[in-house]
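chain below, 355 aa
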Amino acid sequence: MRNYFKLPLLALALAMPSTGFAKSFPKEKDLTAYLMVFHRDDTHGLYMAMSRDGYHFTALNDAHPVIAGDTIATQKGIRDPHIYRGPDRAFYLAMTDLHIFAQREGKRATEWERDGKTYGWGNNKGLVLMKSWDLIHWTHKIVNITDLSPKFAEIGCAWAPETIYDPIAKKLMIYLTMRYKNERNRLYYMYVNDDFDKIETEPQLLFEYPIENKTAIDGDICYAQGKYHLFYVAHDGTPGIKQATSDKINAGWQYNPAWIDEEPTACEAPTVWKRIGEDKWVLMYDNYGRKVHNFGFEETSDFEHFKQLGRFNEGGVMFSTNFTQPKHGAVVHLTKKEAKKLAKQWGLDYNKLAK
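prediction:
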């Protein structure tokens, strides 16, 4: 088991190419693999898993964290990792700086970072932002939302950050779940610099659940078939997945009351990824309400009808070959060269991955 990130950050940064949008973005025909990131509750570290076919995923580093949470996060643990390939071809990794069992594990003297009655369950202040050109060498920055301006000093959480490129603003946009103290959760967005180490704008409201006293968390935006699709968790009864659509990336979301998932128990963390070479998109989510939590999957070609694919290793078509109980994941596509290099780094043979 290796933890590659336990090297001086400066040395990693110097090993990377210069930034900028000079590299050509890979075409779909050049993509051959899928990289999944996720965390687990028992370690609060970052995991990676790879697949050649989008159905069988094998975890890197013998199913141990590829980056230990206590090496990169103020709270000595990360959650909710999201990976995105920017227009410069670099990879952007955003995570919640939060350890929900830190007191139990001797990493914190109190249950939460701040008073739970005032700031709520799982309260935290910041995000962990990382950037890489090769998925091996990373830059790293902790950004506290509470430091942006006095109006955000009393936020109760900064959860589940995701990254997307805004073609109108020509900037990378981070969006996340936030609330004021222990009040209602809403989705917010803000813009980040190209180096992915500084928030450049104050958070603005992205979406709020239209029913008073109900909340929306865990937003995931994808652009497909001429529209932006926002999948999110509605805390309206048993938590589950709903979808809103818009012609704009950060405004004008049209609420749809239909539930997307058909799970009888609570689920969260929706994320959508496209099947390479097909007009099919996979909705993956964290079915945390089950006794043994797992990822659930659905597939769509029109974003109106969703076919159930089941969960990992439960009789359907989706398989995790060497890991269990993943939490809050995301998927990005890789070229063959990128995938082979990453697999080799962690002692895997790309050609022997299940397909």
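Residues 85 and 295 are 22 Å apart (CA to CA). The first strand starts at residue 31 and ends at 39.
thats it, cya
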